[in-house]
Each structure stands twice: as C-alpha cells, then as structure tokens.
Amino acid sequence: MSKNKIVYREFGAPEPEEDADSSTADLPPQQQNIRVQASRKGRGGKTVTVVSGFQTKPETLAALGKQLKNHCGAGGTVKGNEIEIQGDCSQKILQFLLKLGYKAKISGG
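The structure assignment produced for this chain is given below.
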C-alpha cells in the first residue's frame, strides 16, 4: 500500500511534501523582489504588516523574521514564505530590508 494515498483524515493538516522545501533555492538578497504590505483582512480589524516574495530556506526566513520583530519592537510570525509583523511597521521594515540589500517596495495603499 502507498503511504501517499490518504483515504480519510478527520483531524490535522495534510503532511507537507518533502520536495517543496528542498526545491526552494536560497537566492541572494539582491535577486529577491520583496513586497511589504499592511493588511487587516481576516484579522478582526487588527493591522498586520505582511512581508512576502521570499525565495529562501525556512531557517533563513525564521532568522530574518526574528530580526524584523526585534527591529520593530513587535510580535509576529513566519507563515509559509511570508513574515507577518503585528502593527503597521511598513516604513521601518522597508528601510531595514533595503539596508540588508533586498529589493523591496511597499505594495498596496
């Protein structure tokens, strides 16, 4: 019987594919196009700054997320290939990413 074939699952999220993490190339900051956007959708009216467009390994993304949280003095999380920082810190994050060498711009209004 194949392990990949799930007939029924009541609880929990599907298991992540192993090939998805290994196929992500760890590009240098100069070659990544990063978007910084303040969003309130689906968060009960709370503002969150979403930083997306990363093409890097999860370990590198987690370390960058920690640096951004410390720089902004706010909480946050790393979800998938996005970093979410609590509050509207888009200008602080943009300046910090530009200083690190990323090609970043503010997206949305």
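Interim note for the steering committee: Strands lie at 33-39, 48-52, 76-79, 82-86, 103-106. The chain has one domain: 29-106.
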